[in-house]
Write a structure and sequence with these properties.
transmembrane, mainly alpha, MFS_trans_sf, transmembrane transporter activity
């Protein structure tokens, strides 16, 4: 874009005005972007969640017995992933801001793919813990990075459904992981490796190959995307500029401090934490929960698939409707309530069939809420750098809840401690979502009154470009 002359832009103005008033053209450009961007982020996230959660499938496939894990050793191995995973997310998003997405995100993927491949060589509890720690460190930047990447391309009203599409890959990953594990277990003994070792090895190799391909074909920014024509590029840049209220996009540490000092960031963290603990719990332990209902290990792998397929479908449907109505809080509350009913069934029921329905509801209710909360957090953080830091903080700090998820399923076969803990976290998310909706509405009314009292309009927009979402012209979504 830097090479465009002013008269070039003037010549394109007619095309731009047509695009601005033609909804069909707007939809066409968004679809074009989707085809070039979403396959990358969806595959990235699918492999991220698959490689992070496959320890649950490996356990059912015999890893616990092979490594002679006792007591809380499996729980510790599962939990240690989340410590470096959480701590490295803020610096990773800052690096992404200073570098290129097409280099940073695939590089992260190559790193964790190598670690995952080498996990087939672990032969003790100690080596498993070390491998999981390095896996968490390598994966740390991907999730906040992808969310930030989406924000660089799409306006706020279009983000929920896009985040929902790639996050549905999490549900597919858990479902596909069960099917994949069922098939890979048949390789037990091939090459001197057990079935659970082949799960790590094959999934890691495919991860590396996909990442290498992405290095050469992933677009960076609208300004440099060669798949966009000049009128399309101008349209996207203009829409993003208007959507951000022309807030600053430069790198300055003041925007980092804005994110860290904003109490609204911590409200979003509590909402996300309340969703992540039950989300990780059902992903990590669903094969174990189903197995304890009386099914064989192989059938438990297969029966873990349908609930997460339902979760993937529900995720996309909720994301589409969240964008359509430009609402976030009500969809989070609704999904959390559905998941809460599922955990209540799991807690109270002694019948295998009814408990399995509980697994369905727990997954199908929880998974759709995650992309909505991340779209909410990103949409209500003003300015590129602040948004990147807020997303990294929300995702990073909340992911420490994965440690909790790793230790709550300790009392088979009913798992009352685990199910009860998840019910408490879902209740926390519901309560904080209600508070956030009330608070954002209160702040919007306050800003509207300020604009009227001080005669603040779009003509003064550049006076507030460094204020982030504190700008009187910025409006929060509910």
């Amino acid at each position: 874009m830097g090479s465009l002359r002013d008269d070039d832009i003037e010549l394109k103005s007619d095309d731009l005005s047509v695009l601005l008033v033609n909804p069909r053209e707007q939809a066409r450009i968004l679809r074009k972007m989707d085809w070039h961007l979403l396959p990358f982020v969806t595959v990235f996230f699918l492999f991220s969640f698959l490689d992070k959660a496959n320890i649950g499938n490996a356990t059912v496939a015999g890893m616990t017995t092979s490594l002679k894990l006792t007591g809380f050793q499996y729980n510790i191995a599962a939990a240690v992933f989340f410590i470096p995973f959480s701590l490295a997310e803020v610096p990773s998003n800052i690096i992404l801001k200073l570098s290129r997405p097409s280099r940073w995100l695939p590089s992260i993927m190559i790193a964790w793919g190598i670690v995952m491949t080498l996990m087939c060589l672990v032969d003790s509890y100690q080596s498993l813990v070390i491998a999981r720690a390095f896996l968490g460190l390598a994966e740390a930047g991907l999730y906040p990075g992808i969310n930030y990447y989406i924000c660089l391309w799409y306006p706020r009203s279009e983000r929920s459904k896009r985040i929902a599409i790639f996050f549905s890959a999490a549900s597919v990953a858990v479902a596909f992981g069960g099917l994949l594990a069922y098939g890979i277990e048949r390789m037990d003994g091939v090459g001197g490796l057990r079935g659970w070792q082949w799960i790590f090895c094959l999934e890691g190799i495919v991860t590396v190959l996909v990442a290498i391909f992405s290095l050469f074909y992933m677009p960076d920014y609208p300004e440099t995307a060669n798949f966009l024509t000049e009128p399309e590029r101008l349209y996207i840049i203009d829409v993003l500029k208007q959507d951000s209220n022309s807030l600053s996009s430069r790198f300055d540490t003041q925007f980092v401090w804005q994110a860290m000092k904003d109490y609204k960031t911590y409200v979003q963290i509590l909402i996300y934490l309340g969703l992540l603990v039950p989300g990780y719990a059902i992903a990590l332990f669903s094969p174990t929960i189903i197995k304890e209902l009386g099914y064989s290990a192989a059938n438990a792998q297969l029966l873990s698939v349908p609930p997460f397929v339902a979760g993937a479908i529900a995720t996309i449907i909720v994301g589409i409707h969240s964008d359509k109505h430009n609402l976030h809080g009500p969809y989070i509350i609704g999904g959390a309530l559905v998941s809460l009913v599922g955990y209540i069934l799991l807690y109270c029921s002694v019948q295998a069939g009814l408990s399995y329905v509980g697994v369905f509801l727990a997954a199908a209710g929880n998974y759709p809420t995650v992309p909505v909360i991340l779209a909410w957090a990103g949409s209500n953080a003003g300015g590129d750098l602040k948004r990147g830091v807020v997303l990294a903080m929300v995702i990073g700090i909340s992911n420490l809840g994965g440690i909790c998820s790793s230790f709550i399923y300790i009392d088979p076969p009913r798992f009352h401690i685990g199910h009860g803990t998840n019910m408490g976290f879902l209740s926390l998310s519901i309560i904080m979502s209600i508070f956030a909706m009330w608070n954002y509405n209160r702040l919007n009314r306050k800003k509207e009154a300020q604009c009227v009292a001080e005669n603040i309009g779009e003509n003064r927009i550049y006076e507030f470009k460094d204020m982030g979402d504190a700008s009187p012209l910025f409006r929060y979504t509910i």
